[in-house]
Design goal:
- The protein is mostly beta strands and about 110 residues long.
- The chain has a single domain, classed as Jelly Rolls (Sandwich).
- About 0% of the residues lie in helices and about 55% in strands.
- The chain is built from no helices and ten strands.
- The chain has strands at about 10-15, 20, 25, 30-40, 45-50, 55-60, 70, 75-85, 85-95, 100-105.
- The chain is globular and about 35 Å long.
Length: about 110
């Protein structure tokens, strides 16, 4: 059984340019990622800071197909994202005139 975390973490608020949202520290556990707004033809992806403290990497879903936790369409929701305590962020690439909000919500 995974650790319980019933907190909602804002990963992006009106993200309007390619790049990364703010670094967000989470407690760890089982999560759902939500995103809405206008993606502007880009790709929004969830990343985790690796144990070396400097390398950001993409996440793979273990609950579904094993594909990256990312989207090119909004609104978006991804379930059963298991994460350790640490830092996460969203990144946006290839977008034109985006305006994105994103959250990681603990299932506690």
């Amino acid at each position: 059984m995974s650790r319980a975390d019933c907190t909602s973490y804002q990963l992006a608020s009106a993200l309007a340019a390619n790049g990364s949202g703010p670094t967000t520290q989470i407690l760890g556990g089982n999560y759902i990622m939500f995103a809405n707004g206008t993606i502007g033809g880009g790709t929004l992806a969830l990343q985790v800071l690796q144990p070396d403290g400097t390398t950001w990497g993409p996440l793979q879903s273990v609950a579904g197909t094993g594909s990256a936790i990312q989207t090119t369409t909004l609104p978006f929701g991804a379930t059963q994202i298991y994460l350790p305590a640490g830092n996460v962020r969203v990144t946006l690439t290839g977008a034109t005139a985006p305006n994105i909000n994103a959250w990681l919500v603990g299932i506690g």
